[in-house]
Design brief:
The protein is an all-alpha fold. Helix content is 74%, strand content 0%. Helix 1 packs antiparallel against helix 4 (50-75). The longest helix is centred in the middle third of the chain and has 26 residues, at 50-75. It is flat. It starts with a helix and ends with a helix.
Length: 168
């Protein structure tokens, strides 16, 4: 099958608005009208609580990781490993784009893509994302600010990728 079909499916998977669904199912609300108005795990935490936020976070990360891990095998069976890696990155980008601009919400009101991008990077560079998550957690515990923790984790990620890949 065409890898372009994989890109479309990755976008559709990324478009599944877990936070929106969680708001509707648990409290009958549209999270875009509550808290920060963002359909991300942080707003879910503020409005719906920790248990629901963890479920949304894991779902959003999975919709980034699954296309990266599975679609190269499904849609690129004859491709060399370098080509399959490039397609995996493309599938990840499509999933993130779907989260940010979800077709199921008419391309409006998605999340910022942090959890979905974390899933993508977790599939592409697991050791580096482990370092990034450790930095994120440490900054969150010390500062109490999710935004600061996310920025610190984002800064740590490319540094960890360079360290683990041996690039000089």
């Amino acid at each position: 099958m065409s890898p372009y079909l994989g890109v479309a499916l990755a976008y559709l998977a990324g478009s599944i608005p877990a936070a929106y669904i969680a708001g509707r199912v648990t409290k009958g609300i549209d999270l875009r009208q509550h808290g920060s108005g963002n359909l991300g795990a942080t707003n879910v935490y503020r409005v719906l609580g920790a248990k629901v936020a963890v479920a949304v976070l894991l779902f959003d990360a999975a919709k980034g990781a699954i296309p990266v891990l599975l679609f190269p095998r499904l849609f690129n069976s004859l491709a060399d490993s370098q080509s399959a890696t490039l397609w995996a990155i493309g599938y990840g980008i499509a999933a993130i784009a779907g989260h940010v601009r979800p077709v199921f919400l008419l391309w409006k009101g998605g999340g910022k893509g942090v959890a979905t991008a974390s899933g993508v990077f977790g599939a592409l560079a697991p050791a580096a994302i482990g370092v990034s998550l450790a930095v994120w957690f440490l900054v969150l515990v010390i500062s109490g600010y999710m935004s600061l923790a996310s920025l610190a984790g984002a800064v740590a990620l490319p540094i960890a990728i360079v360290v683990f890949s041996g690039v000089r």
